[in-house]
Amino acid sequence: MAADPPYFGEARAAGLSVVTDNPKFELDAYIANYRGKTRIRRLHHIGTHSTQLYLEALVAAIAEAKRGKDVRLYEAMVSALREIVPEDPRATLDTVWVDRTTKEVKAETGRLELELKGYKNNLIKESIRMGCEDLGRHYHLIGDLSNAIKAYSKERESVQTPAHVIIMNMHLMHVSIDQGNWLSVQSSIQKLRNLTSSSSGGEIDSAQPKLAAAMGLAQMATGSYKDAALSFLATDPRMLQAKLDDPNDPDAYNEILTPNDIAVYGGLCALASMDRHELQTRVLDNSNFRNYLELEPHIRRAISFFVASKYSSCLQILESYKADYLLDLYLHRHVNEIYFRVRSKAIVQYFIPFSCVTLAALATAFNTDELTIERTLEEMIGNGSLDARIDLEKRVLLAKQVDDRREVHEAALAMAKDYARTLQLRLLRMEILNAGLEVKPPPGRDVMSMSSLTGPRAGPPSMAGDVFMGTDAKGKGKNLRSEGIFS
């Protein structure tokens, strides 16, 4: 077996994820589900992270890049292959193609800018809008994302119908996803959701699956797994009927992600953020999302095992697909965190009936080794998700001992003291009333108005504090301490 290229050793040293196992998918079949630049970006990610597929993926990425007009993207793909396999002849830049494409791009940019300038001189809003849209699409295709954002944003001044607003924000959302600007993605989605169905002629409803999927992707990218799960779960199943090979299909969204991705992202985010009851009611019993889960039955099985408290089987399924998830363009950054959260929840549920359990038993139950389970437990105890302690000498996990009898006794004593104090104050008030020593409020004021002046004090303690000054039969004040009533 040939040794891995030195590039991957350097990547490991730099803390980057390197996948040495073969994924379960076939590269050609997997990448055929996508179109546009996401196909190139996914091939590049696989090529720079997989020791098994790097050559096949990067060669395919170079060929795909040459079909477009993004010169910088093509140069980046060639550079990536040269860095990993410098002796490969395909790692040489095609300067003829670069020069020709650069000239074509420059000429096309000049033509579109000149057309837009003419439209602005004619002051025809619809022509200006279409000119901005064409220029933004051109900038997006050649990889100039900042100018694409500017062109699409200028389109806002010329939009005349809600349908135009939807198209403009969908373009802005797509470019922002390619930029990795997730706040901008969520902003564009919120603007579209503010359009009502009646004002947009129902077109906003047709865009709902794309909006829900893009919002879930943005929320997952920012670590909001519960919100991401809810967004993916709310994705309309119309996207399942889209023709992925037809770029004109309005329900197809494979320039970003596919229905399979929605099933995987939604299922994993739900596992990481929901309890067993929520997983049953919101995921497994969700008639719409069930259609997506049929595309990825292993995700449905993993969730079913978790709901049934079969944590080892659940984690075993997740581990078997870990290589696939680490090679996913958007998911790879979150795989370790999601797996940790799933394992943490499982450990907490597993440990509830026990007062102590050995680390070896835990490692066996969760299909891992003792060192991994020990590190997981340390992190869980450190962040407060597990109330226990580890005995490293005996290699056992001990639950926090709670003396229930002592807590009951302390609560009873506290209650008895409270009752005794309350009784003493009530008896004191009765004696004061019997002795005619109650302090009367001034004329025109009731007790409630007097209490509002003195602040929110409790009744009996206030009276106990105020009885040191009373009145005699002639209405004159007298000091009760000096009368010997209170010593």
Key terms for this structure?
about 475 residues, about 65% helix, three-stranded antiparallel sheet, mainly alpha, two-stranded antiparallel ribbon, about 5% strand
Short description:
With 487 residues, this protein is mainly alpha-helical. The chain has helices at 6-13, 27-31, 37-49, 54-65, 71-84, 95-122, 125-141, 145-154, 162-179, 182-193, 203-206, 208-221, 225-233, 259-273, 276-284, 287-293, 297-307, 311-320, 322-326, 335-351, 359-365, 370-383, 404-434, 447-454, 459-466; strands at residues 356-358, 388-391, 396-399, 469-471, 477-479.
General description of the model:
- This protein is mainly alpha-helical.
- Helix content is 63%, strand content 3%.
- The strands form two sheets. It has a three-stranded antiparallel sheet. A two-stranded antiparallel sheet has the order 4-5.
- α7 runs antiparallel to α8, α12 packs antiparallel against α13 and α23 crosses α25.
- It starts with 5 loop residues before the first helix and ends in an 8-residue tail after the last strand.
- The C terminus is likely disordered.
